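Proteins fold reproducibly. Take a tokenised chain:

. . .
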Amino acid sequence: MHVRQLRRAVVGFAMAFLLGACGGTAALPLRNDALSSVNLVSQAEQYDTPWDATPDPDGTQIYFTATGAQGAGLFSVPAAGGATKPIAVGAPFVAPRGLAISSDGRQIYVADAQATGSDGRPGRVFAVPAAGGAPTELTATAGTAPRGLEVASENGADVLYLSGNLVGSGEPAVLKLALSGQAPAAVVAKGAPLVEPVGIAVAKNGTLFVADRRASGGESGGVFRISGGKVELIARDVRTGTPVVGATLTLDDSALLVSALAPDRDSAQVRLIELGTLNQAIVNKVIEANTGSGGVHRAHNRNFFAWADSTLPGPGRHRGGVYALTP
């Protein structure tokens, strides 16, 4: 199944929101035919809870952040399934969550909102060689309490987008950092209407889509579109649940995928938003059995996705896992 079928899966359905006094949502159409396969490629063994997952540029390997008895860190698994390997576990990581991969697949960037350096400021982004090695702090991110990350190639060079807080004021913000040189992070958007921005997706024309855990008030999330300095809420009442809310685009930028939970129960799903019309649908094929919904990313070079089942350990619950999604 190709991207045009994924796009057709959401085109033709009216937007299923009731903008009444309660701010509730009607049932969105189910479009499990949008994905040809959803495969569990890593079940928790060396870890308990995976938070975010990204394929390498060609979709042959999947990297993910997770916590477990041996410490928190970065892991990898073949996209077709196989042995899970630790890449970097333990210090300096404290609570690694969001991650992204460079366009050449050589560096993994990991957001840790709790890691504190010698400056005493909480939160920073680390770069970890995909082949293994010690994490290196990106000093320009110190104190930003980063949550979500994405890498985009702009003018032939990689740029890192991160969601977090402004240093000093603590305002919620989306920042942009050139990965070559020592320039400070630039502010893309800050303050209201952003509340707790997490997942970031970057279109080829520079438009950003940001999944915010609390954009609709209280514990209810939403999705913002950021373009030309304008921040616009394009989807509301998205139930998230876990600290990492993923957002990623199809290869042709026609549809956005956002990790979510069912509105009435702890059942994982992916919200599909057709960007030409803002029509929505859901996919819960296989993953609906999971009670947590973490990060989701697409391979840079093809329509292949990795999704983290952030099910928390507890009575009657299995530990989380990592899935490969193919249209």
